[in-house]
Amino acid sequence: MKIAAIDLGTNTFHLIIAETSINQLNIIYKTNKPVKLGEDIIKENKIIPSAFERGLNCLKEFQKTLKEYNVSVLRAVATSGVRSATNGQEFIDTVKKETGIAIDVVDGEEEANLIYEGVKYSGAIQGKSLIMDIGGGSTEFIFCDENRFYWKKSFDIGAARLMQKFFKSDPINALDQANINQHLQETLSELIEFGKTFGATTLIGSAGAFETYAAMLNPFVDVNKISSGKIDIAAYHQLAKHLINSNHEERSQMPNLIPLRVDMIVMAAIITDYVLAELNLKHLVLSNYDLKIGVLKSLSKP
């Protein structure tokens, strides 16, 4: 049986198709499109017309691919960009009418559940860990081990949302950085409080920005072909400093930094730095499996 998941992220739409067998997923196709559905979303808290059209056109393309692969079961999941927009339901209704794709808007808790299942399937979880998934609109955190999760929460501190609110200088200046860190301190107090008692030593980054860190640090490794891998934390800190201190033009010339993330990677690095420092985490791991794999796993259950 062929199953598929669509992840309608705030920045990027993903399509992944797999064939299922007993307890196994064989991924046969995957693609993503930089839709930027959350462009200017914080101004009026709505999907602007150009982003609305980009999202619709992308899903029309995805629908053609689904037919080509003769997919039997599909789940399309929308996260922060759609659930927080005042015209999110209008987008869902238009997509259903014009493509036949039914979009399931998940709350932050279910989003975290799906991320945990995807990361668990990658094999990245080894002992007490904190999973972090930096999206465009929100960031999910899950304290867990190999057996279960102990605490999870979604916060509206995605890279695109922070960039629209705080990225006023290029390179980002000390005042803007201080404002972001103050915002993180106020927003993530519950996370830090639980984390200090939980005692995780490893931060597992779920795809996205963490794929970029890994690709920039290990240019000879195709991160798309691995399920998980270690990221040298000292090398990460050097890279993060370099990214934060560079301007847009300099970042746009850096190998393995895709255009969509040229500016948002600065926000991602600031969030990553903050969490690593506040919780004194010693190890950094990439999980290339995330929400999309979690959705596929849920579809493949008997």
Q: Please, what is the average pLDDT?
A: 94
**Uncertain residue segments:** none
Strand content: 15-25%
Number of strands: 11
Helical content, roughly?
A: 40-55%
Explain the overall architecture:
- With 302 residues, the chain is an alpha/beta fold.
- The chain has helices at 41-44, 49-68, 80-83, 88-99, 108-122, 159-166, 174-187, 189-198, 209-217, 233-245, 248-252, 264-278, 291-300; strands spanning 2-8, 13-21, 24-33, 73-78, 103-105, 129-134, 139-144, 149-155, 202-206, 228-231, 283-287.
- The strands form two sheets. A six-stranded mixed sheet has the order 8-7-6-9-11-10, with helices on both faces. Strands 3-2-1-4-5 form a five-stranded mixed sheet, sandwiched between helices.
- The model has no long low-confidence stretch (mean pLDDT 94).
Could you provide a short overview of the structure?
With 302 residues, the chain is of the alpha/beta class. It has helices at 41-44, 49-68, 80-83, 88-99, 108-122, 159-166, 174-187, 189-198, 209-217, 233-245, 248-252, 264-278, 291-300; strands at residues 2-8, 13-21, 24-33, 73-78, 103-105, 129-134, 139-144, 149-155, 202-206, 228-231, 283-287.
